[in-house]
Amino acid sequence: MLIDTADKLDRVIPSLLACTSPVVDTETNGLNSYGTSKADPHRIIGISVDDGREAYYFPFRHQQGTNLPEAAMDFFRRYLSDPHRTYGGFNYKFDQHMLKGDGVGYAPNYEDAMLGVHLLNENEPNFRLKDICNRYGIGDGSRQEETLLEKVKGRKDRMGELDPADVEPYACDDVRLTRGLLDLIRPALQHYGLFDIWQQVNYYSYITTLMEHRGLMVDEALINQYREEAVAHKNDAFARLHAAAGYALNPNSSKQVCAFLGIQSSAAEELENLMASGHESADFARLVVEARGWSSVDSRYYTPYLNLMDPNNTLHCNLNLIGTISGRLSCSNPNLQAVARQTAVFKVKDVFIARPGYTLISADYSQAEMRLACFYANEQTMGDLIRQGADLHSSTAEALHIPRDAAKRINFGVIYGIGAEALHKQLRVEKKVAQGYLNKYHGMYPQFRKLIKACEQRAEADGVINMWTGRKRHFNVQHAYSHKAMSNLIQGGVAEMMRVAISRLFPAIRDLGGFMLLQVHDQVIVEVPDSVVDLACRTIKAIMEDFTFDPPMTVDVSTGKSWGKLEDWIPA
Description:
This protein is α+β, with helices and mostly antiparallel strands. It has helices at about 5-20, 75-80, 90-100, 115-120, 130-135, 140-150, 165-190, 195-215, 220-245, 255-260, 270-275, 280-310, 370-375, 380-385, 390-400, 405-415, 420-425, 430-445, 445-460, 485-510, 535-545; strands at about 25-30, 45-50, 55-60, 85-90, 110, 215-220, 315, 320, 330, 350-355, 360-365, 465, 470-475, 515-520, 525-530, 555-560, 565-570. It has a five-stranded antiparallel β-sheet. Strands 1-2-3 form a three-stranded antiparallel β-sheet, with helices on both faces. Helix 9 packs antiparallel against helix 12 (about 280-310). The longest helix is centred in the first third of the chain and has 28 residues, at about 165-190.
């Protein structure tokens, strides 16, 4: 139903207010609710709501037809941020961000159908509302979408050019479909013991939504300085490389680099091996790496950051809760989980700074995957080394008489299900030598092999393995390989640990006047007022280590005014 006048709105408000679980969706003229230094933020053009009896579309900024007056948004500012209501949505994070642009506060209680579907089957072909509903026989949303796409010539960001009456069938169908999907998955989640975890994941989604909104402040002047330096170094490195090659060699062309250096692959690892070999081409390989580095640091980081940051010099990434099969967060636009390790070339983390009056705190689990693997496998030998504070990789290296880096690859490789074929390629040794390393490794730590087999058998027999929280990893499609079941168990278990830890941390950090900013795999970054740094560090460490795993989890904490210059926190 189209509600495009104040009188019509007044007539439906009682029905809306009577609903404690409205399903909500927004139609917008784009995807960026923050704007950039060069572009205004995108805005809501209309809001659709299903109150359980009827679906309504409330237009606000269509270029044709009749819109509700801007004053009508006052009702939605209250109605859509009520902590006593539970809102239904599909990828509701996006809608919350767009609503925030119109002054609607973030609602803490919601049920996201997309997150529920992901819990029930992370192997879905995709997580588009229409496709999921088609697969599960809910409604006929594709027909309305096809009709709309014809009118906007395939561009949904142009919906605002249409009359609201042309958008209403599509918008109302979205909330009807979402309610239908919610009604379908709630009993399924209950049946499989996942309903409580879904509620927890919805809360986790709310926390990460606030993290995205806060964002990380960047030092624009420092980015520009580093960018100018990078461009100058890049030009110099390219000139020296071209002189050495005798032509304008492109260091990012694998074919050209391989021909120049006489190698089969131009991957970074191959170039590092060539540089370490002392071969006559080592200096040329070093030139290629240098040219690539200075080019990459600008094109991958500095320039995109300048283009993406909002007018307040803040970068807002997307923390995606369905980005991986394990439940681990992924990050995009930009990917702040993939910021390069700090080097003389890649000084990227330096540009992320604390806001005035605040200090950044990083809390990072130490060897989380190895510790959880020992817990699952009841591996006492490695567990004892961890409890004693030994360097696991050095201990393994000493026992196998191999370099520490190779031992590190084996330690993590076993967790990830590595075999002799892959290991011999990684270590550049004969396959029988790699198999010998694995045999000796499993002799040292025998419980891991048992866990690998147990996980594989469970995945094949039951089609599912359970994380320690009860979350499930499903093996119900061809590409869900059972031999990776242990890897999925460990990675998923650590992801669940991070989810639980962050959900516990959130109220504590807020009570201290701080903000959570980013999760980078097993690490969380927050900023707190300067006056409470020591208290915050003690609180964070206590909360994040409060698990009953054996060996226990430990957290390394560091503080500073920029991400690139954090220093270890020493308890007072």
